[in-house]
Amino acid sequence: MDPLPPQNHFTYIVSRPIYSNPTFEEDNQRQAREERTLRERLGLTCGCSGKRALKVVKGVFPVIDWLSRYPIREWLPSDVISGVSTGLVCSLQGLAYALLVSVSPVYGLYSAFFPILTYFLLGTSRHISVGPFPVTCLMVGSVVLTLAPDDHFLISVNGTGLNGTGAEVNTVDVEAMEAQRIMVASSMTLLVGVFQVVMGFLQVGFLVRYLSDPLVGGFTTAAAFHVLISQLRIVLSVPTDNHNGCFSVVYTLIDVFTNISQTNLADLVAGLLTIVIVVAVKELNAKFQHRIPVPIPIELIVTVVAAGISYATELESHYGASIVQSIPRGFAPAQPPNTDVLWNILGSSFSTAVVGYAVAVSVAKVYAAKHDYPIDGNQELIAFGFSNMFCGCFSSFVASTALSRTAVQESTGGKSQVAGMVSAMVVMIVILALGHLLEPLQKSVLAAIVIANLKGMFMQVTEVPTLWRQNRADCFIWLATCLASMVLGLDMGLLSGLVFEMGTVVFRTQFPACSTLGNIPGTNIYRNMKDYQNIAEVPGVKIFKCNSPIYFANIDYFKERLRATVGFDSVRVFKKRNKALKKIHKLIKKGKLKATKTGEVLSEVSLGVDNKGFEGERNGERETRKVDDGNWPVSEVEVHVDWALELPVRVSVPKVPIHSLVLDFSAVSFVDVVAVKSLHLVIKEFLRIGVHVYIAACDDEIIRKMEALAFFDVEITQGLLFLSVHDAILFIKLETANGGRHDAIVEKLSLMQDCEEPPPFTEEEDLIETYDNQHRVSLSYHFVVLVSITTSGFHIHDVVHLS
């Protein structure tokens, strides 16, 4: 909606009382919230009825809800076409992504088949294509290479030496290595599923929100770089050692360039051609997506052509090309996980579970918003959890989703997960009948397909300049996560990025934006004084706003900014005044200062704190004395001390130019115990030097928290709470106009010239001094003295603290 032009501004008039919180609650009859007991809450949650049971069943098995309303004639043809196209892509990506896990390609086909079956029953997204995802595959692969490296499967075989004699040669037992690696991968997949199911039942799907878009962007970009390096050695067909952990990318690159002279040209040419062709055709698909009814299945075309060329020219035997070799027909039998390795992969499994779920839910939400249907995050956790547990029992690896594969399913007309089931049937046909036709396929072609599909991840780098302009904290999160994941590995990189992200949140709340507000003349609008020219500060009043929660980590910063806003330290003012009064008292006792006829007999008043203990101690001992320049008896005289004028002693007392302070709590979302205690003491420090404090726009939840923490007492009542800043300002102006308050720099004091021994601090005053100034020297005594500043002399009465 466009803003109104200046000539079309409208005015409105609101007539209502000036509301403090207690008055507003009384006038509008605030109701107490009904707190249910634990038994009542359990009864509402666990109550059972036929309707509720059906709702629970539909929640656990969403397929019951949507399949019963499935429009067969409208959706089924589109789902079949989409399923066939997606199934071919799933088959090829499964073969390719198996290389990332360092297992035989046939297990990639299993991983593209089994998770679709369970997600069809339990998932809530209609469009995502469930199966292998390169980032999670690489995370599983790093664990596989750590627990089952080539060195563990070296065996000695008899060979022929240079002189024709027999010699023992070390070689890798490929069959044993393959069996152990798929055991590790499937065990980790099962554990990933367990983690996801447990998180789903505990309703902690919200935890994925801590993986912000910048963090996920930086992490997936670094993961794409890891994938690129891992597939580079396959495209070049050069031998490398297995590296994992910190600087694994660097070590792999060193191995690649060290052995680059052993590059197989047949594999290199096939890989480079595949990358160029796949990327080019995908660009055409994207550019003409509205004109082409079905995207060109370029991966399928390239794979079939490459397999045919390899078979016809016998690239393996003639040129030493590395091919798939064996894709057995049928499914591997179910097998239990290896419990011996579970304890070694707990951390990696949890991080993989979080990443897989985060990516899948992010993609699911994109298409759910596009097609206007809801996604249940916790149910998605359960769906992917059971899918991975199912995969783990049938020699498969972690399932998630991929944006490219999901885009194929949606763009070819997929309407529901019926398309997913059709794609699973296509994968099953490949496993049972067509897989052996791909045995001559070069591995470099599969690796090139993986690299070509990384383009979308690498393009996330273009987001960095935009993030830098929009929000530098998010930009730093992206860069830190990306660099950490590249250097430390994916597991530690994700953890480091998450810690850094939480650190930025803490930093931003620990050092929040604080401002001094002013009033736009003639309105009830208050804004930052630095941002507007047509703005005025309310005379004698400071309005302070903190734009964050107030808690233990930022309460000290809050007090520092508050002192900077008001321009003085209330504790220092109090101490300096007492120091001046102490010296003036000595002058009175020496007879250098005398009272005048202008004094009046009044009760004692001290710097904002009544010394009741002193009154009780001295009332019985007071004697009527005569003042030197008069014959009337007087024990107490009302006088005025103007701290803005020069005092008769050499003490620099800070000026207090305000009489009221308004704290705008409209942006404060919560307070904790430490903050409430500190605010309580801060307000008392201002009150004892004559500055009245008000809190405006405080949320009801925060007020309830303050009540629970005993924030309010006799001195600090709920009367200082106001609905808005304007209510507080109008109340202050009304009180000032009616004489309900006096200027903070002109205070009424009392004289008692018979004070001999200074009574100690009251317990409350000592508490304030000690709490707020732990590193300062606290004053421990005070006494009362009277001085009046007139044309004839200085006469003061006040609480004076002795060190």
TrEMBL record:
Its main location: membrane. Residues 531-732 form the STAS domain. SUPFAM superfamilies: SpoIIaa-like. The chain crosses the membrane at residues 106-123, 130-148, 182-208, 215-236, 256-280, 292-312, 341-369, 381-398, 418-438, 476-500. The keyword Ion transport does not apply. It comes from the Eukaryota. PROSITE patterns: SLC26A (PS01130), STAS (PS50801). GO terms for cellular component: membrane. It is a multi-pass membrane protein. It holds the Pfam family STAS. Keywords: Membrane, Transmembrane, Transmembrane helix. GO terms for molecular function: secondary active sulfate transmembrane transporter activity. It is found in: Membrane. NCBIfam families: sulP. PANTHER family: SULFATE TRANSPORTER (PTHR11814). This is STAS domain-containing protein. It comes from Esox lucius.
